[in-house]
Amino acid sequence: MNLYTQLQQVPFFILGPCVIESEELLVEVAEKLQLLEQELGVKIIFKASFDKANRTSIDSFRGLGMEEGLRLLAKIKSTYGFPILTDVHESHQVAQVAEVVDIIQIPAFLCRQTDLLVAAGQSGKIVNVKKAQFLSAKDMVHVVHKIESTGNQQILLTERGTVFGYNNLVVDFVGILEMMDLGYPVIMDATHSVQKPGAGQGKSLGNSQYAPHLANAAAAIGVKGFFMETHPNTGKARSDGANMIPLNELDRALRNINSILLLNLNNK
Q: Furthest-apart CA pair in the chain: how many Å?
């Protein structure tokens, strides 16, 4: 059974730090995730960004770059056996990234970029598209059609909140149901959905304590994919620390989601 078929049939978790800060960080997170995967019997995909090209400030840390980032992600994949997800920002990055990763992610701000979507689709890899903060869920049908035009139907769609005011995001759960109607697996990005974009004088803030609750609510309505960024020391994280779940709290978050998913299954 290939990876995409698995993701259509079983609950799964996309977990990891926001950005690649160091090899030591990736190893620490991967070792914890490997334990959780074994203890909970869940499907985990490891994620981390080699470049955060859409940071609020020109002075913000962006990552270690594509060459070093992909080298480290390949090492995590070979050492721990996780499928790997990372994001791309430009079409020319896709071919090289596709040599390493299993899932290519399109950032929310770029989800209408036709050339980027087509390049990702042509890679033959699974393509995860984050819904833009400015789009309605129903508008994602046009994003889907762009990827489908390449013959690639290995598509994932991710909810990460919608802008209804300044420096705040709102999750529309009806919109999640509408995205599910498009026929592809839908993922709840619980940590970016509690982000407060640009609210911190050159950086984004967030309310990480709410992220597990959004994940639980998504599980209750039938979502089976969950995206959550994590870090062993969120106060010192170099990107999105304010909305990431501390690594030592991830166990409880995953167990609560699993309990809700099991309850849904038993009630069918």
A: 51
